[in-house]
Design goal:
The chain is of the alpha/beta class. The chain has 2 domains: 274 residues, Zn peptidases (Aminopeptidase, 3-Layer(aba) Sandwich); 109 residues, Alpha-Beta Plaits. It contains 10 helices and 16 strands.
Length: 393
């Protein structure tokens, strides 16, 4: 099977490019991926692969069966959505929708999952078990399409015993893959704070309750949550990316709004940090006569790669690609809603190298210049096929 997979993954390269180019040219925002879902469904129909549309809005699921389907079921997941970014690449397959772009590689992820299904459906008499495929909406937007797919029961009937996901990685050259066992990516929570003061003339601050001055104290004090309250062996990041208040230089406003993010690697500490943020903001505001509205909606949990499944997957990848093509990954403070799946069943989320020779196509994801060396899809599709078959044994 390993030779058959390699041959088909490489032999259908033009097909993989055709699929990826269409999806890349037609990006859609989170939970609005109607055309993308229709294209995937049409492709699955053409290959005779049964599936169900309209899960959690635009999601698609299905089960590919080999021999003895009741033996075991694993799952593979890909995401449908793009980002509100104006593409800066001048390529034939450039986004046709100004202001929208597949800048996080979800077009690649969709193509890879379709490629896996194409190959394994061709050889379904050669393997045992079931492969559930999950095309989910809204990875880029709270509450995360992964959580909604799980609520819709995609890990049940049949029950999934392990799940795989992959992601583009411009740090690695095409042809390589990367793994990390255990804790890999951070949880991410939005922080929204409104500080209500009492506005007035800037020349008469004693008659006001200045929410701008108070917001400066709040931001400074909240840095203590990470620097003095968190365990230094478990990384945390607390950052504010937006502060809004006032309209002119000589008027103290009534209201200042702050927005930021909290990222952690430990779920117990995450909950404690929420409490500390509420407590610090409330006490500072009260001490100056102000009030605060504090909203910290829970976002994605930390992403945990099952140690046993990941160690096995890393070894299977070495068998397929060669030892030198498989690398170890560092912890990342970015987040992905694959984490929801990894808290439900054993998961393995790995990276596929996408740059060219270490010097070209190195722009990071979420960047208007992001693109990939497309031969990376050959590596990704073949590797995922091989991991899946081994996980079904």
């Amino acid at each position: 099977m390993i030779d058959a997979i390699r041959k088909m993954a490489a032999g259908n390269f033009d097909e993989w490019k055709r699929i990826r180019h269409y999806i890349h040219q037609h990006p859609e925002l989170s939970f609005e991926e109607h055309n993308t879902a229709a294209f995937i469904s049409q492709q699955l129909d053409a290959w005779g692969i049964s599936h169900t549309n309209g899960i959690a809005g635009t999601g698609i699921i299905g089960v590919l069966e080999g021999r003895n389907p009741g033996k075991r079921c694993i799952a593979i997941r890909a995401e449908l959505d793009a980002l509100p970014i104006l593409e800066a690449n001048e390529v034939a397959y450039k986004s046709l929708t100004p202001g929208l772009m597949h800048a996080c590689g979800h077009d690649v992820h969709i193509t890879c999952l379709l490629g896996v299904l194409r190959i394994l459906s061709t050889y379904k008499t050669e393997w045992e078990g079931q492969i559930k495929f999950i095309f989910q909406p809204g990875e880029e937007q709270h509450p995360g399409g992964g959580s909604m797919m799980i609520e819709a029961g995609v890990l049940k009937n049949p029950d999934v015993s392990a799940i795989f996901g992959l992601h583009v990685y411009p740090t690695l050259p095409a042809g390589m893959v990367g793994f990390r066992s255990g804790q890999y990516m951070a949880s991410t929570d939005e922080i929204h704070i409104k500080i209500h003061g009492k506005g007035g003339h800037a020349a008469l601050p004693h008659q006001t309750i200045d929410p701008i001055a108070i917001s400066a104290l709040v931001i400074t004090a909240l840095q203590q949550v990470v620097s003095r309250k968190s365990n230094p062996v478990s990384p945390s990041v607390l950052s504010f990316g937006m502060i809004s208040g006032g309209t002119v230089n000589n008027v103290i406003p009534d209201l200042v709004e702050l927005s930021g993010t909290l990222r952690t690697m430990d779920e117990e500490w995450r909950n404690k940090a929420h409490y500390l943020i509420h407590n610090i903001v409330t006490n500072i505001c009260e001490s100056f006569g102000a009030t605060a509205d504090i909203d910290i909606p829970k976002g994605y949990p930390s992403l945990y790669n099952d140690p046993s499944l990941t160690a096995s997957s890393e070894q299977w990848a070495r068998e397929y690609l060669g030892v030198e093509q498989v690398k170890s990954l560092d912890l990342r403070m970015t987040a992905d809603d694959f984490a929801f799946y990894s808290h439900e069943v054993p998961g393995c989320y790995f990276r596929i190298g996408t740059n060219k020779g270490g010097t070209e196509l190195t722009a990071s994801v979420h960047n208007p210049h992001f693109d990939i060396e497309e031969s990376a899809m050959i590596t990704a599709i073949g590797t995922m096929c091989w991991l899946s078959l081994n996980a079904l044994r």
